[in-house]
Design brief:
mainly alpha; two-stranded antiparallel ribbon; 2 strands; elongated
């Protein structure tokens, strides 16, 4: 697959969309797990974590990083874009690993997400500003 002629912003944006679809897919499949659902319904816990309004707010903020990076990658100027695409993957990787489970489906999706996020970081690190 050749990607010459595709701007770095577009490449990064597409990779962030790819990560987001994987995150959503992992979460959706988790809801098909009876034990996971039982824990949520009966005890208000997931993977041993008590689900509180504050927990949900923190999770929402961390999930928003991925969503915002889709826009940042496409719309920001070089310097901000490059820095954000080096730092944000670290935050998202920490969230994926720290908030994850050992379910086979989650490990599968998390591996793809982490590899993609490392790819984003490497691309951003190697990204040189185009000469005007």
């Amino acid at each position: 697959m050749k990607s010459e002629g595709i701007s770095m912003q577009t490449k990064l944006m597409v990779l962030w969309i790819f990560v987001k679809f994987n995150v959503i897919s992992a979460d959706l499949l988790s809801f098909l797990n009876g034990e996971f659902l039982r824990g949520l319904i009966e005890t208000g816990t997931a993977e041993g974590v008590v689900i509180t309004p504050i927990f949900l707010l923190v999770a929402a903020v961390l999930l928003e990083v991925n969503i915002v990076m889709i826009l940042v990658s496409r719309l920001s100027k070089y310097r901000i874009n490059r820095i954000a695409n080096i730092v944000a993957p670290l935050v998202v990787i920490a969230f994926i690993i720290g908030g994850g489970s050992f379910s086979p489906h989650y490990i599968f999706f998390a591996s793809i997400e982490v590899i993609t996020l490392i790819t984003i970081m490497i691309m951003a690190l190697r990204w040189k500003e185009a000469k005007a």
